[in-house]
Structure to design on (281 residues):
C-alpha cells in the first residue's frame, strides 16, 4: 500500500514537471514570434513612410526619376514635353480643320457703299467758332444741322459743341456734296434768302461744293452764278424760326438767343474774310 502511494506521488511530480516544461517552451516561442512580428511591422511601416506607392506613381514622374535629374532639370524637361504636346495638337487641328468646317450660312445683307472723302469731321469757322475775346485755339462752336428738310426752318447755324453728336459731323465727298452724318442730307443754299438749309441729296447745283486748299474756303460750283460764291456767316440774329436741334436742352431749343447762320455770300478772290475760313476738326 505504501509502495503504491509512493509510485503515484512520483508519477504526479513527473506529470507536473512535463506540464511546466511545455508551458515554458510555448511562452518562449510566443515571445519570439511576437518580437519578430513586431519587428516586421515596424520595418513595413518605415518602408511605407519613406517610399511612395509605385502603383500611383505618374508615368512622367517615373521617367523623371529614372533620369537622375535635379528638380530644375526635371521642370525644364516637363515644360519641353508640354510644348511638344501643344505643337502636335495645333498641327492636328490645322490638318483636320477642313473636316471641322460646318456648312456655309445664308448671305447677310450688303453693307453701305464706300466713298472717297475730301474731308470729314466737325465744321469750324475762324470767326464764328470762338467766343469774343477768347484766346483759346480750341473751337467752342461748330456748324449744327437742325431737324427737317425745309428751306425756311431747317437752317444750319453755329452752336456749342455737343460730344458724340452726329448732327454736328459732316463729310465732303468727291461728289462735291457736303452731307450731314446725322441723316445723309445735303447742305443746300436758298436762292431767295441765301440761308443754308438741309435738303434731300439730288442732282441740285445748289448742293455742289469744292474745297479751296489755298484759302480754306468752301466754294459753290454752281455755274449759273455770275460771281464767286462761298459759305460764310450771317450777323447774329434773334428769333429766327428754326426747327429744334436734335437732342437740344434748355436754351439751346429756344429762338430768343443770338445765332449766326450759315449763308451763301459773294467772295472776293483776292481778299479772304475770317467768316469765310473753315476747317474740319
Amino acid at each position: 500500500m505504501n509502495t503504491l502511494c509512493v509510485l503515484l506521488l512520483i508519477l504526479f511530480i513527473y506529470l507536473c514537471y512535463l506540464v511546466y516544461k511545455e508551458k515554458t517552451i510555448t511562452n518562449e516561442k510566443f515571445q519570439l514570434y511576437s518580437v519578430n512580428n513586431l519587428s516586421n511591422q515596424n520595418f513595413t511601416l518605415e518602408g511605407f513612410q519613406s517610399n511612395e506607392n509605385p502603383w500611383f506613381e505618374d508615368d512622367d514622374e517615373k521617367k523623371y526619376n529614372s533620369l537622375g535629374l535635379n528638380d530644375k532639370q526635371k521642370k525644364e524637361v516637363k515644360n519641353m514635353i508640354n510644348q511638344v504636346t501643344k505643337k502636335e495638337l495645333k498641327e492636328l487641328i490645322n490638318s483636320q480643320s477642313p473636316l471641322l468646317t460646318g456648312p456655309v450660312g445664308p448671305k447677310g445683307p450688303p453693307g453701305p457703299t464706300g466713298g472717297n472723302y475730301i474731308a470729314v469731321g466737325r465744321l469750324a469757322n475762324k470767326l464764328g467758332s470762338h467766343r469774343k475775346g477768347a484766346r483759346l485755339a480750341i473751337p467752342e462752336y461748330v456748324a449744327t444741322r437742325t431737324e427737317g428738310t425745309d428751306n425756311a426752318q431747317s437752317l444750319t447755324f453755329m452752336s456749342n459743341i455737343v460730344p458724340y453728336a452726329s448732327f454736328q459731323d459732316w463729310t465732303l465727298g468727291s461728289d462735291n456734296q457736303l452731307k450731314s452724318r446725322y441723316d445723309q442730307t445735303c447742305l443746300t443754299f436758298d436762292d431767295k434768302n441765301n440761308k443754308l438749309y438741309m435738303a434731300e441729296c439730288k442732282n441740285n447745283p445748289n448742293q455742289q461744293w469744292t474745297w479751296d486748299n489755298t484759302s480754306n474756303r468752301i466754294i459753290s460750283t454752281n455755274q449759273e452764278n455770275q460771281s464767286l460764291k462761298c459759305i460764310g456767316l450771317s450777323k447774329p440774329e434773334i428769333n429766327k424760326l428754326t426747327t429744334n436741334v436734335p437732342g437740344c436742352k434748355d436754351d439751346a431749343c429756344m429762338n430768343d438767343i443770338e445765332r449766326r447762320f450759315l449763308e451763301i455770300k459773294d467772295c472776293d478772290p483776292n481778299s479772304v474774310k475770317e467768316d469765310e475760313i473753315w476747317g474740319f476738326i
Notes: The longest strand covers residues 117-121. Residues 117-280 form a domain with the Trefoil (Acidic Fibroblast Growth Factor, subunit A) fold (CATH 2.80.10.50). The two ends are 148 Å apart (CA to CA).
